[in-house]
Design goal:
The protein is α+β, with helices and mostly antiparallel strands and 237 residues long. It contains four helices and 13 strands. Strands 5-8-13-11 form a four-stranded antiparallel beta sheet, covered by helices on one side. Strands 10-9-12 form a three-stranded antiparallel beta sheet, with no helix packed on it. A two-stranded antiparallel ribbon has the order 1-2. The N and C termini lie far apart (42 Å).
Length: 237
């Protein structure tokens, strides 16, 4: 079997050039040392030749997942929406790395971030943080505008393996929550009770502070009607 690595096409480099961002150190990281890893990832993925993933679409009218399907196509045929424009990570399982930690169900992250995320989580666990559940890569269209049928039209950050949820049963997603008060409405996960529940994120705690130091944003601090206390990504969404 021929195992030679195919060269990454020049036009693909131009097409997926990372966009500049002065505010987020994670983007700076990607533009320096990280970009080399991204190029290696892309080259290896082209050698594999296949992109495959399971996905769904969230329907806002039915309030449930619809259009569940498995997608398989040539890696060279990846569409614009199947690749994150900032990080270069894709929805393809071939670009994801399995992370295993003691007493936690294994999960996938994009291989640009997997090592960094695993190191942080291992540090948290060694220091006594109570982490019982983590979700990373999970493909689904849950963002963006809706079509005439109420279907969301954009992949989530989880879809590219660039977002992570920690202890969702103790760090819920709230709506009607410009600022967190007792009037915020819990719509997914469990109640966020910092100071009472040791598995809830602390605003200035080790987990939140460390992720932010590494360029991630916390969903508990995003602007708008929702607060997602379990969630970390480079955009916060």
């Amino acid at each position: 079997m021929n195992t030679r690595t195919k060269a990454f096409p020049r036009n693909m480099l131009n097409k997926y050039k990372l966009k500049p961002c002065r505010d987020n150190p994670m983007i700076h990281f990607l533009k320096t040392a990280g970009i080399l890893l991204w190029l290696l990832m892309a080259t290896q993925a082209f050698a594999a030749e296949t992109c495959s993933y399971n996905t769904y679409t969230w329907n806002t009218q039915q309030k449930k997942a619809v259009q569940l399907q498995k997608v398989i196509h040539a890696y060279a045929d990846i569409t614009t929406d199947e690749r994150d424009a900032i990080t270069g990570c894709t929805v393809c399982i071939e670009d994801q790395v399995l992370i295993t930690l003691p007493a936690i169900k294994p999960f996938y992250m994009c291989n640009v971030f997997a090592s960094k995320v695993q190191n942080m989580l291992e540090t948290f666990i060694r220091s006594g943080e109570q982490i019982e559940e983590v979700t990373g890569y999970r493909v689904g269209k849950t963002r963006g505008d809706t079509d005439i049928y109420g279907n969301r039209t954009q992949f989530s950050n989880h879809s590219y393996g660039i977002a992570i949820d920690i202890n969702p049963k103790h760090n819920g997603l709230y709506d009607q929550c410009i600022e967190f008060t007792d009037d915020c409405r819990l719509i997914r996960g469990g109640p966020w009770q910092p100071g009472q529940d040791p598995k809830s994120m602390q605003i200035n705690g080790q987990i939140v502070s460390t992720f932010k130091d590494h360029g991630y944003l916390w969903g508990g601090e995003i602007k708008g009607q929702q607060k997602d206390f379990m969630h970390f990504s480079i955009t916060g969404y």
